[in-house]
TrEMBL record:
<protein>
    <submittedName>
        <fullName>Thioesterase-like superfamily protein</fullName>
    </submittedName>
</protein>
<dbReference type="Pfam" id="PF13279">
    <property type="entry name" value="4HBT_2"/>
</dbReference>
<dbReference type="InterPro" id="IPR029069">
    <property type="entry name" value="HotDog_dom_sf"/>
</dbReference>
<dbReference type="InterPro" id="IPR051490">
    <property type="entry name" value="THEM6_lcsJ_thioesterase"/>
</dbReference>
Length: 176
């Protein structure tokens, strides 16, 4: 089940949080509960993706993206993700989640998130996200303009660009 109670908690906690610049980092803290684990007594990989919502949605609120989406009647969808798992997250462990927008191209916004245990990153994800309206994907130039951002876009990190390039070579539809 979706962690609605945890999401409401995050929204309440961050309702009056200091606004962030568009590329600011949102930091939040979470607990791995027994219902988050798999048969190997660690954070389930599917649940990991769900828990990342707990950082990404407040990030959108603090950067003004949520209000702008509502004002323009736009939606937000995930269009891809690449995740790395490096350390096990066990039951009752406290996680620090760091969420930030790393940049954008003509169609997509790229968000990086990581779950940290102490000073070590347990897992990290980069999401490709798209803003949509009834006609499809809204160009990011229009989105950042609606946010009041008029500086040049940040240069995407080389590793993000490499993922974009590699993903563009995958066949679609898949063969299997």
């Amino acid at each position: 089940m979706y962690p609605f109670i945890r999401m409401f908690k995050e929204l309440i906690i961050n309702a009056r949080a200091k606004p962030l610049p568009i590329t600011g980092t949102h930091i939040s803290h979470h607990m791995c509960w027994p219902w988050d684990i798999d048969l190997w007594r660690e954070l389930n990989n599917g649940r990991t993706l769900t828990l990342y919502d707990l950082g990404r949605i407040p990030l959108a609120g603090r950067t003004g993206l949520s209000r702008m989406l509502i004002k323009n009647r736009w939606g937000l969808t995930m269009a891809g993700a690449s995740v790395r798992y490096r350390k096990r997250v066990r039951t009752f462990v406290r996680i620090e989640m760091r969420s930030r927008l790393v940049g954008w191209d003509d169609r997509f916004i790229y968000v990086e998130q990581g779950m940290w245990l102490g000073g070590e990153c347990a897992n990290q994800i980069v999401y490709r996200s798209a803003v949509t309206d009834r006609n499809g994907i809204v160009p990011t130039a229009r989105v950042v303009e609606a946010l009041g951002y008029d500086d040049p876009p940040p240069v995407l990190p080389q590793w993000v660009q490499a993922w974009i390039d590699a993903d563009a070579q995958r066949p679609w539809p898949p063969e299997a």
